[in-house]
Design goal:
Rossmann fold; homodimer; 8-stranded mixed beta sheet; two-stranded antiparallel ribbon; 226 residues
């Protein structure tokens, strides 16, 4: 597939790299290509600046949101939650129409510092906001309950014995995403229901950050034991 | 230990039964003993009315909140979240002072029907509300991320290979609760930090209810795979 990954942060890069590794044609979308490539300093999490990362990943094209999105079979929203609607607007509603939009972002609110709160909770979700803003996109929420490394290499935790959740109103779009997840090696994929169920997985941000702190590593994930 | 379990619902009964099975002296607290014993119809979840349940559990005393709480070494809040402060007020601040108070309740808001929302979320928690209302109690949040059966018999899911979270400001009180959890057979107990971290586990209600629906059984639990 031709895939556009919107967002140049750690999740976006890791997904782009993983998807390219599966043989997909991947472009990363950003607001300003030149400014993104100029970033060479590591971020506060210690991740390399995009310009440095890009040198090691010459097969992954960087393009303006709209250019990356044009003609993509599937799009991934890996922008910051607060910037998602704006980025998708730049990508262009016409480029989203009828396409599967995998939303891996969380509605993080850093206005009170770290750890973040959520700007929507049990009465709405970022995924629903995106679906309402782009009614012709086929939004599927998934992979937002773990760190980037685990998204694309589930075997990096507990030999892959853990869970990924999927929410969305379009059954066929969920099928496309589920196939993609399986190709990464996911075996326990729980379909929670419609896009409104994304509220539940977005609300897991708090526990994930605390577990990360308690364990001293982000390399973990939720498993539904049964 | 002498233990008071406040709340006559499924969680309270199951905990009382489990604690009595470990050899503790257990009383269940309620607002009105006669009214509680008069309930013989099953609730909407199909659980027996308290009066019927009580006949099969004659070793577990039913008493008014204050009578159950008086002289207890440890108290368990298994009341509905919306009724917790009121029930604990009835139990008596003096009876809570210096005592370990294990809070297993969730801040469920049924005002919009089922599934419930939460009446506090990422900016506060029921556990913190209780700690603020009863500053001399030693509040520990735990077991609020699973159904009653799993609380006391962790081996009923995946041979016990899953996780329970603990939050609280009082290290010694957390130690008491952790010992109690171990005596139920819990092996993966993650200490998340202070009582404020209860926000994270209370926010897991939504995902738990959805997973229950997806799997068709409440007998499951979260495991932190790593």
């Amino acid at each position: 597939m031709k895939i556009a990954v919107l967002g140049t942060g750690f999740a976006g890069r890791t997904l782009a790299d993983g998807l390219a590794g599966l043989g997909h044609e991947v472009a990363i979308g950003t607001r300003d290509v030149a400014a993104t490539l100029k970033r060479t300093e590591p971020d506060r999490m210690g991740n390399a600046g995009y310009g440095v990362w890009a040198e090691g990943h010459p097969h992954i094209q960087l393009a303006r949101f709209a250019d990356a999105a044009a003609g993509a079979d599937l799009l991934v929203n890996a922008t910051s939650g607060a910037g998602s609607i704006s980025a998708l607007t730049d990508a262009g509603a016409a480029n989203l129409a009828g396409r599967v939009l995998l939303d891996v972002a969380n509605p993080l609110d850093f206005s009170q510092g770290f750890p973040p709160n959520l700007f929507v909770k049990d009465s709405d979700s970022l995924a629903e906001q995106i679906q309402r803003a782009f009614p012709d996109a086929r939004v599927v929420k998934a992979l937002n309950t773990m760190v980037g490394d685990v998204m694309t290499v589930p075997k990096s935790v507990s030999d892959g014995d853990h869970t990924v959740f999927v929410s969305g109103d379009d059954a066929e779009a969920k099928h496309v995403v589920t196939d993609l997840l399986s190709s990464f090696g996911w075996t326990d994929i729980i379909d929670l229901g419609g896009i409104g169920t994304a509220r539940a997985t977005e609300m897991m941000v708090k526990i994930r950050l605390l577990v990360m702190t308690s364990l001293g590593t982000p390399i973990s994930n939720f498993k539904i034991a049964r």
